[in-house]
Amino acid sequence: MPQPVRCAVIGAGHIGRFHAEKYARHPSARLVAVIDPDPVRADQVARPHGAAPWPDAARLAGQVDAVSICAPTPFHFAIARDCIAAGIHVLVEKPIAVTLEEADAMIAQADARGVVLQVGHLERFSMAGLGYAAVIDDPVFVDARRLTPFRGRGADVSVVLDLMIHDIDLVTAIVRAPVVAASAFGRRVVSDSEDVAAAQLRFANGAAATLLASRVSPQAERSLRVLQGSGEVAIDLQGRRLSATRASVRGDAPTTIEAAQPDADPLGAQIDSFLACIATAGRPVVGGPDGRAALATALAVIQSIRSDGAAVPIEKSHV
Fold it and tell me: What residue stretches are annotated with the GFO/IDH/MocA-like oxidoreductase domain (predicted)?
């Protein structure tokens, strides 16, 4: 019987707490440590699972096989660099890094070291559980909305990097083509960065998407609507429901397929996938290049917002 993967969670905040729970309960993993500079917070997350609270990552080498990096985004690159150098597999929360240069360095280092680099775009696993790939065959236009009341978490960065990047990754996976240009508008409401943003994306295959993100909405919504030649697919990511309507070419009534997974566990599925990739040397569902592509588009959206809505080619984007 294979030995369990020795895991650690770096960052004992809101997201790190859930990662720790998943590793502690996983039959193929053993939670070794929870790392956070706040000793009280590290202890609160680690102790219930029999793990050690560590103040920093200095002791990881030789004691841990895999980590979840749930620290604030500005620390992603330095932590990932040190872990990868030690031969440790990395699941890093989104966004992969602050800059494209950091993302490129992480990807190259992981490839050279032969370790798994997975990016935590969790909604891919929500979508996969609903079987979207079987009903979306020729997307022409995608409308994505991600609205939430203000909670303070993530407000140190633009809502584009906090929330919209989820849908940037999703629509890119749905369209199955790279984004070539973005134009966007946004406003600050309660923080020092954009709290509301609306973007238009153009893809290399001619498809288009509109994305709306807000972290100051009175009501929460996470939804996608996909228009294609054969009909329409509506996805409620919050309620984990999908409805696909296929138009009839003979004038008959359209047919509708519905799916629901109200009890799905996307984070559990993400951890399952990460550990499976480690065991089989497989390719992650959302690997480093996917995280880099989402970051490139997000940075282009931010650049467009700060350039009065001017269209920004993705390959030339920078912030």
Answer: 157-226
How many C-beta atoms lie closer than 10 Å to residue 231's C-beta?
18
* Boundary (domain end) residue, out of 99, 120, 141: 120
The two structure tokens encoding residue 310: 């001017």
Evaluate if residue 317 carries a pLDDT over 50.
no
The answer to whether position 277 is within a domain reads no
Q: Which structural domain, as residue segments, surrounds residue 78?
A: 5-120
> Of residues 74 and 252, which shows the higher confidence score?
74
Judged by DSSP in three states, 109 sits in helix
Separation of alpha carbons 219 and 230, rounded Å = 32
Question: Is 281 part of a structural domain of the chain?
Answer: no
How far is it, in rounded angstroms, from Cα 265 to Cα 184? 33
- Residue 186's pLDDT is 98
Strand order in the sheet with 66-69: 52-54, 29-35, 5-10, 66-69, 89-93, 117-120
Residue where one domain finishes, among candidates 82, 97, 120? 120
Mean pLDDT (the chain) is: 94
Decide if 276 is inside a domain: no
CA–CA distance, 95 with 145 (Å, rounded to integer): 18
Other residues' Cβ atoms within 10 Å of the Cβ of residue 102: 21
Helices (H) and strands (E) in the chain, counts: 9, 15
pLDDT tens for each residue of 228-284: 988 999 999 999 999 999 876 666 667 888 988 888 899 999 999 999 999 999 999
Q: Is 89 helix (H, G, I), strand (E, B) or coil?
A: strand
By C-alpha distance, which of 296, 289, 294 is closest to 100?
296
pLDDT at 255: 84
Query: Is the bond preceding 95 in cis, omega lying within 30 degrees of 0?
Result: yes
Question: Is residue 271 one of the residues assigned to a domain?
Answer: no
How many domains does the structure of the chain reveal?
2
146 and 235, same domain (yes or no): yes
